[in-house]
Amino acid sequence: MVDHSGLRDLVSRTAQDRGWCEPRWFETTREDAGTGVTALALRDHPRLVLACGGDGTVNAVAAGLAHTGVAMGIVPIGTGNLVAQNLGIGSGVRDAVTSAFDGADRRVDMGLLDGRPFVGMGGIGLDAEMVRDTSPGMKRLLGWPAYLPAVLRGLRSGASRVRVRLDDGHWLTRRVLGAVVGNVGALQGGVSLLPEADPADGLLDLALLHDVNARGWLVTAGRLIGSRRVDGPAVERFRFRRLELRSSRTKPFEVDGEVCGTTRSLKVEVNPAALVVKMPA
C-alpha cells in the first residue's frame, strides 16, 4: 500500500520516465465520487485517466469515460477492489501503475441497472444485504469469510417470489433470497459465482440464489470451501442482454458494492464495449 503522497510521486515518476507531461490530479468528494471530476479531466483531452481507489471510484470514473475512447487505468487502493481483481490487475500499487501506462487497451462492457452504470456486479436481496451489513474493516481483515454473519442474517430475513424475464423471453417464476447480475464472475477472495462471465462478450450473467433447505446450503457451502466456487442447488445461472425482475417483497439493491436503496423491481441491460481499460501486458 502506498500512501497518498507516495502514490502521486510514483505516478509522476512513471509518467516522466515515459516522456509524458506531469499528471493532473482531481480529488473525489462525498458529493462527487468521480464522475464530475472525470468530466473536468476530459477537458484536457487526456490519453489516460487513472482511477485510484476502490470499486466505487472505478464505477464513477468509468461512467464518466464510457464511450469516450479515453483509456482508464485502475490503481486498486480501496477496501473493495473487485473489478481490478477480475480484470487481472493485482493489488500491488507499483504493478498497477505500470500496467496503467504500459498495458494493452481492452474494450470491456458495462451494465446498466435501472440506469445506474456498473463495471463489476449489482444485485438485489441477499447480495445487497451482505454489502450493507459487513464492515470494511472486517472485509480487510478476513476476506470473504467476513460476509458469513451477514449471509446468516440474510437467510433469516426470508425469501421473495420473483418473476424474471430475459431478452424478451417468457417470464420465469422463482422463490429466491437474492439475485446477482455480473459483468465479471468472481467475488471477494476469488470465489467464483458467475464462472462464464466475460467482460468483453456483450452479455451479462445472472445468478439466482434459491431458497433451499439446510441440506442444499450445506452442499453449496461444501463446494465453496472445496473449490472456491458458489455452486449446487442454491444457485441457478443465466446469460442475457436485457433483464426485468419483479419481486414480491421490497429488498435492498446494490451497484458495484454501493447500496443504492430498496426496490421491488429492476431493469438491467448490457452496454457493450463501452469502456477502454488498460490491462496488464
From TrEMBL:
GO molecular function terms attached to this record: ATP binding; kinase activity
Entry cofactors: Mg(2+)
Entries under InterPro entries matching the protein: ATP-NAD_kinase_N, Diacylglycerol_kinase_cat_dom, Lipid_Phosphate_FormReg, NAD/diacylglycerol_kinase_sf, YegS/DAGK_C
Keywords: ATP-binding, Kinase, Lipid biosynthesis, Lipid metabolism, Nucleotide-binding, Phospholipid biosynthesis, Phospholipid metabolism, Transferase
Xref: PROSITE patterns: DAGK
Family: Belongs to the diacylglycerol/lipid kinase family.
Residues of the DAGKc domain: 41-117
Organism: Lentzea albida
GO cellular component entries: plasma membrane
GO annotation (BP), single: phospholipid biosynthetic process
Protein name (database record): Lipid kinase, YegS/Rv2252/BmrU family
Transmembrane segments: none
